[in-house]
């Protein structure tokens, strides 16, 4: 039990450090590839939103993010780390846990950056009096947070989801 708590504390601290360090990748994806990656089965996938974000296509990524139907389980398609439970994670060999932990840290770092940007755009719309658009941005972050905070996810993903939902609610109430 003590070891698990220590592990979780280290994991949370590492997440915070990684999110503070943050860096962005170059845009190495052609417009045709970005366009083709946007949808699958008629819906927007989170992995494609993140790919646009990481490629530096912020406007595209934000538009896609606020258009996601977060109640559709397929939005997390092709992101196995988001379908892994904490119980499954703990049962893995140490090497696999270390790899997955690093992937989860990178994912939460990228998501945090995107979510904060979406909230900032919502704040800009709220300040200009466009409350409808502001609410759409806040609602997307809140819904993303609720989706990611499910008990069927890794603890670090759950915690990120709870924080994102809380931050969206806080922004919406201001």
SS summary, helix count: 8
How much of the sequence lies in strands comes to under 5%
Q: Give me the oligomer status.
A: single chain
Order of helix and strand elements from N to C terminus:
HHEEHHHHHH
Task: Return the domain count.
Answer: 1
Query: Which blocks of ≥5 consecutive residues have pLDDT under 50?
Result: 16-41
> Roughly what is the average pLDDT, rounded to an integer?
83
Structural class given helices, strands, pairing?
mainly alpha
What is the number of E strands? 2
What percent of the residues sit in helical stretches (DSSP H or I)? over 70%
Amino- and carboxy-terminal Cα gap: 40 Å
Give Rg in angstroms. Answer: 16 Å
Morphology call: elongated
- Major sheet: arrangement of strands: 1-2
- Biggest sheet layout: 2 strands, antiparallel
Can you describe what's shown?
The chain has about 170 residues and is mainly alpha-helical. The chain has one domain. Helices cover about 70% and strands about 0% of the residues. The chain is built from eight helices and two strands, in the order H-H-E-E-H-H-H-H-H-H. Strands 1-2 form a two-stranded antiparallel sheet. A hairpin with a 2-residue loop joins strand 1 and strand 2. About 15% of the residues have low confidence.
């Amino acid at each position: 039990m003590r070891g698990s708590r220590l592990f979780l504390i280290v994991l949370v601290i590492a997440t915070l450090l990684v999110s503070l360090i943050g860096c962005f990748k170059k845009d190495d994806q052609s417009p045709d590839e970005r366009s083709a990656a946007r949808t699958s089965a008629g819906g927007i996938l989170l992995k494609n939103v993140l790919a646009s974000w990481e490629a530096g296509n912020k406007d595209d990524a934000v538009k896609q993010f606020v258009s996601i139907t977060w109640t559709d389980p397929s939005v997390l398609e092709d992101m196995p780390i988001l379908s892994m439970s904490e119980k499954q994670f703990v049962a893995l060999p140490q090497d696999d846990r270390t790899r997955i932990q690093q992937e989860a840290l990178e994912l939460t770092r990228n998501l945090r950056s995107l979510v904060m940007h979406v909230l900032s755009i919502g704040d800009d719309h709220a300040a200009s009096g466009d409350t409808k658009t502001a609410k759409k941005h806040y609602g997307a972050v809140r819904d993303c947070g609720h989706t990611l905070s499910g008990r069927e996810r890794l603890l670090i993903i759950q915690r990120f989801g709870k924080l994102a939902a809380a931050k969206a609610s806080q922004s919406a109430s201001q």
